[in-house]
Sequence to fold (534 residues):
Amino acid sequence: MSFNKAKQLATFSRVWYLFDAKWQCPHASGERIARILRGEHKPIYYPGESTGDCVVAINTRHIALRNDAWRAEALHIRREYAKTRYDIPLFKLHELDPTKVLHLCTMNCMPRDSGRRYDLARLYTFPDDAVPSHLIRNVSDQIRGSRTTPQRLDDLTPDDIEKFPQMFKWPKELVVDDLDRDKFVRVLSPEELPKRHVMLGQRAGRQNYWFHVPTTRHEEVKIN
Amino acid sequence: MVRLLRYGTIFGPLKDRWRYLYKTDLYKRRIEAGPEPERFRSALINWNYDAELHACTHRFGEKINIESLRHALTDSSFLNQIVKQRTEAGLAANDQTTLSFTHNEELAKRGEQIAEDFLRRALQYWYPKFPQEGIDTITKFLLSEPTIADISSGLGFKTLIRCDVPSPHSTMLKKAFLAFIGAIDENNDRHRAELFVADFILTHLVGKDINEIWHIKNPMGLLTKVLEENGRQAPESRLIWATGVSSVLSTYVVGIYSNKEYLGKSAGATISIAEEMAARDALRRLFETDEQRAPIPFDKLYKKGLLIDK
Fold:
C-alpha cells in the first residue's frame, strides 16, 4: 500500500456517526443528519458525488415534537385515484412505526433528486437503544443533539425535591401538594369511556377515515 | 431524411460490383504484404546528418564540437557493422586501423561517472537525513536503463544515434545520452555537464515520491533501529480511531509514538496495514522527506548552497 492509497482511504472512507434522538426535535435533527448523509460537512463535497457518511440513530421512539404537532400535524397520503387520499396524524404514525417520523423529517431536508434515496439508505434508525452489534461496531463518532435532555419532575426522588434550594418559603395555605396525582387524576372505567361512533352505510367509506384497514369486501369491519 | 433514404443502399465507391471486388482485393493484398519494414531515418531522402547534429547542439544550448558530438552518438554496434562490411569486402585487418572514429563507450562511462556523482551529491544535499542506502537506490533508479532511455528518446536521440538497427535499443539510447554528458564535460567543463544532469535527469523525480522509489521491506524494524541510534525509546503503535469496522470500507488510523511523543500516523484498510504505513510515515518524517518538504530546486541547487565539487 502506498502513501497515496492511505491518503485516499483516509479522505473517502465513510465515517459512522451515532445520533441519540431522545428528546430531540426531529426537524432540527433531520437537518443535521441530512447534512451528514449528503456529505456537506466535508471539504470534498460535490453535489453529484456520493461523499456522505453513515448515521445510526437510536431512541427514535422518544423524539419530542414541537407544540401540538403530534395531534395537529399529519402525514398526507395520496393514493392516485379520486377520493383515496387520507391523513395519518403523527401520533398514530408513531405508533405504527416509531422510526418513521425521523426518517420523513430527514428526507424532507434533502433535495428531491434521484440520489436522495441512496443517501437515505445510509441512515439506520432504531426505536430504542438496542442496536445490532455489527452496526454499533462501525460507529466511531457521534452527532450532538440540538436540544438538552430535560429532567422531568417525576424522574426525581422526593429527597432531591426536598433538597432543591428555595429562595424563600411559601406560606402554608398557598402550597398544594400536586405531586400526589391521585388527588387530581381519576382512572375511568370502560363504561365511562366515550364511545367512538362508527359510521355505517353510505358514508362509511374509507375516505372518511384516516386509517385504512384492508379487508375482503364481505368481511365486516369493526372499529371501536 | 437523406440519411433514411440512403440507409441500406450501396452508395459511393462500392456502387459498382467490379469496384467493390477491386477494393477488397487491394485490401487483402495489403494485409498479406504485412507491415512495412523499419527503415533508418537516413534512408529517407531529406536527411542531413550534419544539420541534425548542428541542430542538436543548439537545441540544448551547448557548445560542442560537431566531431566530438558525432563521436558521442556513435554506438559500438555501428563500428562492428562497418568492420564486418569491410571484412566481407576483402580488406585486411591492418587496413581497418585507419578508421577515423571510435565508439562512445569511454565517453559514456565518463558521463555516467559525472551524473552519478552529481546526483548523489545533490540528493544528499537536499535530503541530508535520508539514509545512504536510500540515496543509492534513487541514484540507481535515475540512472537505470528504462529511465535514461525514456529521457533520451524524449530528447530526440532516437534518430541521431548511429547504430546497426533502425530504432535503437534502450542500451544504445542510454549510452548515447550518457556519452552526450561526457561530451559536454570534454568540450566545456564539468559544471556545465552537471547542470545538464540537473535539468534532464534529476527532473525525472517530479511527481514521484522518493520514499516509494526506495521500498523499505521492514519499516517498523528500521524505525526501531533509527530511534535506537538517536537514543530514543522504541516506537509504540496505538489505534487512534477506526470506522466502518464490519463494512467494506473499513478504516483504521494508527499512530506511532516514542515515549508518548508523536512520530507519525496513517490510515489503512486493516490494522496491520495501517501500522506498517504509520511506520513508513514516521520514517519519512524522521528523514525529512515528507509531504511538507519543499521540492528540489532543480535550477537553483548551486545558488541554494550546494558546494561545487573539486
Remarks:
- The mean pLDDT of chain B is 90.
- DSSP finds 14 helices and three strands in chain B.
- Chain B touches chain A at residues 209, 211-212, 241-247, 249-251, 253, 266-269, 273-274, 276-277, 280-281 (CB under 8 Å).
